Amino acid sequence: MVPLAALAGTGLGLDVAPLTAAEMQGAADSEQGAASGINNAVARAGGLAAVAVLGRVAAWSYGDAAPGFGVPGDGPAHLAATGTAFGTIALSASLSAALAAALALCVTRAVR
């Protein structure tokens, strides 16, 4: 878990700062406050939507294993289903990130 968390943290560190800098560069000096507020609101809303959607993906991929998704248990079926659910979440998140990267490469804009 720790290596994957470190990888995710590194990816966010390499992504969030340049993205924020690009957004701030695109706004006029008089609009910096509004641009920062919009950036923050969109980031929070995106995070909330991702948690909700990926939680639903986990519950769907968990299946009918006892004792149920989100309920503590230590049986082999529960552990296997939990591994499957989190694997599905990781795959879904990585595919979404790859799609976002591909879309970002398609967008070009002149730098001021």
Class based on secondary structure composition and strand pairing: mainly alpha
Query: How many separate helices?
Result: 3
Tell me the domain tally. 1
What is the alpha-carbon Rg in Å? Answer: 19 Å
> What percentage of amino acids are in beta strands?
under 5%
- Uncertain runs are none
Report on the biggest sheet.
none
Write the layout of secondary structure elements.
Elements: H1 2-25, H2 32-62, H3 76-106
Q: What features would you describe in this structure?
A:
By secondary structure, this protein is mainly α. The protein has helices spanning 2-25, 32-62, 76-106. It has one domain (2-106). It contains three helices and no strands. Helix 2 (32-62) packs antiparallel against helix 3. The chain starts with a helix and ends in a 6-residue tail after the last helix. The model has no long low-confidence stretch (mean pLDDT 85).
Could you list some keywords that capture this structure?
112 residues; 0% strand
Brief digest:
The chain has helices spanning 2-25, 32-62, 76-106.
